[in-house]
Amino acid sequence: MSDDFMLDTDDLERRMDGAMANLRTEFASLRTGRASASMLEPVMVDAYGSMTPINQVGTVNVPEPRMVTVNVWDKGLVGKVEKAIRESGLGINPQLNGTIIMLPIPELNEERRRELGKVAGSYAENARVSIRNLRRDGMDQIKKAKADGMSEDDEKLWQDEVQEMTDKYIKSIDAALETKQAEIMQV
Fold this sequence. Notes:
elongated; 6 strands; Topoisomerase I, Chain A, domain 4; 4 helices; Ribosome_recyc_fac; alpha+beta; Gyrase A, domain 2; RRF_sf; two-stranded antiparallel sheet; cytoplasm
């Protein structure tokens, strides 16, 4: 029975990739002084009785480097979209022009850059915690197989593989954080 143990490393890696993709999405939502349509991804609008992503109630465009526009499809939702953007914590003051909401992206001051750097750090730490939890899941599976009669050599081999995978993802999280913080601090 012990020879049959196979840790599903593909599943573990897929789940770790998911944690990295989530981190990239969170990083994309942080504004760096340049306009980006992805910065509105986390904004949810109370539309038609449920919370809806902003890109499902209008078209998000970036017509120039310091401007994002949202062309709201339903005229009745313009006020709700504006309110959702205002309350999102992005620090952007929306301006109405009919069904188009214009979002001028102001220059970031030094204090705001530092705050965003800390937010990026907390996003990275959450990703690290997710990776460590996945590592623990893998190690638990190995311990269970050890209790079922797996040899110590096999146990060590699998533990090393899981740890190696964990280290690789933690390193890529750290690299992504460093890149994002440099981007945020760039004037």
